[in-house]
Write a structure and sequence with these properties.
Length: 193
């Protein structure tokens, strides 16, 4: 089932999400719905807070990023062909590598994109959908998407990584989004409407 995306301004997006345990009610169908929602919204990652569930769960499919790149563009990224993964109870171990800038957007903040500086690699500990434990290092676009989604379960947004001046310039647009004055190609939930 395609679920509505929570829009900027909703308190769930600023809440640190809770861990979950095996046997979490409806987890299998929730994960399925998250994949379906993410693809229907043309996303490459989706965190549970974005569908109004304050739990430490997110999905990532960085293979989507490489589909429309030409061969020369693909050579720039060490993580080709990307990964498709479920992350449960993820914890950031550390980031590494040279910080690099990339233009990011977010399904919860439609029609807003900004250049965000993030480290090239991230080491994460997490569980998969079977609650098997993993500790892995991810690079390039995959690392960026993971860090973006990890921010969501920590109550942060990509706009928290831009300058104060840029955030001030976005204030009116963000107020419009939180007030429901935005059109998206997918259904949304607004805090005030």
């Amino acid at each position: 089932m395609i679920l509505p995306i929570v829009a900027y301004g909703h308190p769930v997006l600023r809440t640190v999400a809770a861990d979950i345990a095996p046997g979490h009610p409806g987890l299998e169908s929730l994960i399925y719905d998250m994949w379906e929602t993410m693809y229907a919204s043309s996303g490459v990652g989706l965190a549970a807070p974005q569908i109004n569930h304050s739990i430490r769960l997110f999905v990532v499919d960085s293979t989507q990023m490489f589909l429309n790149m030409n061969a020369d563009e693909k050579k720039s990224f060490p993580d080709l062909p990307g990964v498709k993964r479920v992350f449960i109870n993820a914890r950031l171990e550390h980031t590494d590598g040279a910080p690099w800038s990339f233009n990011e957007g977010c399904l919860s903040i439609p029609h807003v994109r900004e250049d965000v500086l993030r480290d090239e690699a991230v080491k994460m500990s997490f569980m998969d959908e079977a609650f098997a434990t993993h500790t892995e290092t991810f690079h390039g676009i995959t690392a960026r998407i993971i860090l973006h989604e990890y921010d969501h379960i920590e109550g942060r947004l990509f706009i928290d990584h831009i300058s104060l001046l840029k955030r001030k310039l976005l204030r009116k647009r963000l107020e419009e989004i939180s007030g429901g004055k935005v059109r998206a190609d997918y259904k949304m939930i607004f805090a005030r409407h």
